[in-house]
Amino acid sequence: MRAVTLAMTGASGAQYGLRLLECLLAAGCEVHFMISKAALLVVATETDEALPARPSLLQRYLCERFSCTPEQLKVHGPEDWMAPVASGSGAPSSMVVCPASTGTLSAIACGASNNLIERAADVALKERRQLILVPREMPLSAIHLQHMLSLTQMGATIMPASPGFYRQPQSVADLVDFVVARILDHLGVAQRLVPRWGE
């Protein structure tokens, strides 16, 4: 079972993270999931969902919502330092932060590791593993751009939540699926959300 770390932080675009989680689980991936306090607020603001803050309750809620088992979906709290994602010896080979707030980008670029999301990203960088960051912010300041450049130079992939329109999307869900499909392609996870160019 392919293992992927997925974190949601407090940028707009909660739909991207939730849809990505759904698709990873549907593809049979084992997911180590983390969500910041700010992201919980964004989810409540942008969707009809009110996610529980306690990791055990959140795991139960998400397992029911996405019809998966606790063995497939592992939810970690912000200070669960014994979680596999906190160490290079236990972390999955791929991590995605979707959406990624500019504050999280800053912390990762500087190696802050103040919480488990930042530590897991730091592990991905130091172990030379795949790290995908999905910012959703505009306009971007010089600080944001510098952090993105620094992270790219460190080996991370910056994938702004910028959906394409050449497929003539008919709904917001189509726009979300465009971005999620590109993330899945980079992860090497099979997807049928959006045909690749030329297909």
TrEMBL record:
Keyword annotations: Flavoprotein, FMN, Prenyltransferase, Transferase
Q: Where does the chain bind dimethylallyl phosphate?
A: 166, 182
Name all Flavoprotein domain ranges. 4-187
| Chain positions recorded as FMN binding sites | 10-12, 36, 101-104, 136
Q: What class of enzyme is it?
A: transferase
- Reported EC number(s) for this entry are 2.5.1.129
Recorded catalytic activity of this chain's protein: dimethylallyl phosphate + FMNH2 = prenylated FMNH2 + phosphate
> Could you confirm whether the keyword Iron appears in this record?
no
Q: Which InterPro entries match?
A: Flavoprotein, UbiX-like
What does this gene product do? Flavin prenyltransferase that catalyzes the synthesis of the prenylated FMN cofactor (prenyl-FMN) for 4-hydroxy-3-polyprenylbenzoic acid decarboxylase UbiD. The prenyltransferase is metal-independent and links a dimethylallyl moiety from dimethylallyl monophosphate (DMAP) to the flavin N5 and C6 atoms of FMN.
- State the similarity comment: Belongs to the UbiX/PAD1 family.
Query: What's this protein's name?
Result: Flavin prenyltransferase UbiX
The top of its lineage is: Bacteria, Pseudomonadati, Pseudomonadota, Gammaproteobacteria, Cellvibrionales
Gene that encodes it: ubiX
